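User: I'll paste a sequence; please echo it back and then give the predicted structure.

Assistant: Echoing your sequence first, then the prediction.
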Amino acid sequence: MAYMPLKDCKMYLDDSKMTKIYDLSQPWGVDTPLWPFPGARQDLIFPRGQYLGRFHKRTMTYTGTLHAGTHMDAPNHVLHEEEVDRARNGYTFAEIPLCRCIGSGVIIDMRYLFDEFEAKWNAADGDPAKMPEDIWHIIMPDELEAAAAKDGLEIRENDWVVVNTGFHHLWRKNNDKYYNYYPGMGPELAHYLTDVKHIKGITGTWGATDAPLWHYPLAEQMPWLDKAYKLATGKDAALKFPDYEPCHRIFMQHGVCTIENAGGDIDDVTGRRMTIAAFPFRCEMADGGFVRLVAWEEGSF
């Protein structure tokens, strides 16, 4: 059939009787902000292979990084194969055990960090030379536990932990702030969540699993940020943050799923325990990829 007119037929599906699914993913497309590595970057490209006007069918192809928008990293993104228990935790994106990708979890309210950042930024008029060192906030275990306890939440074994810092409101609006100043994790929190709490998944409204300053050597990886840090503190970031993405490696060695750039409907479920899910696609070559990070009320299915 070359053409199918829209029929005035009764829809039998009633969404109001179905479980509410909250989308914690950010939208992505040609203007999706990308991690600001030095040098030229290529935007995501979506050329068409078939056109609606000719075939009444659209076929798109995609060229671009798999680490864009809300995405999950695989162990082979940051680790050599000899550093990973591949049989247990997987190595490529396709090998991540699916049982790790769904479970009970808590969405922890740390949105006060965004308000504190904005106050410090405005007081400094955006000038790094006037900024305090703690404008780059490293989240510590006691802070995370206090934020959870505020809403009566407990981080349990095999939990997914979702951290709402409020920075998702900067997505596509101020990418400089979003990627260079988001409150994030260092090895102290990564070790706590793996060695003490034994979680299965971690995500947050941040640009990466590691805080911006944990990208050693910062002078090479993010030279503009290294300069800003020196102007603000007079210190050498390489001495205080002497490792490249330690949280990535700690979590992945423990088989913990890591997802970056959460957002979407996250404010609607913050401060609650929900079922969390995000499944990787089965690509043998991928070192990460897009996921639809979702949440729903426990026991509703």
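The chain has one domain: 21-296. The domain at 21-296 is CATH 3.50.30.50 (Glucose Oxidase; domain 1).
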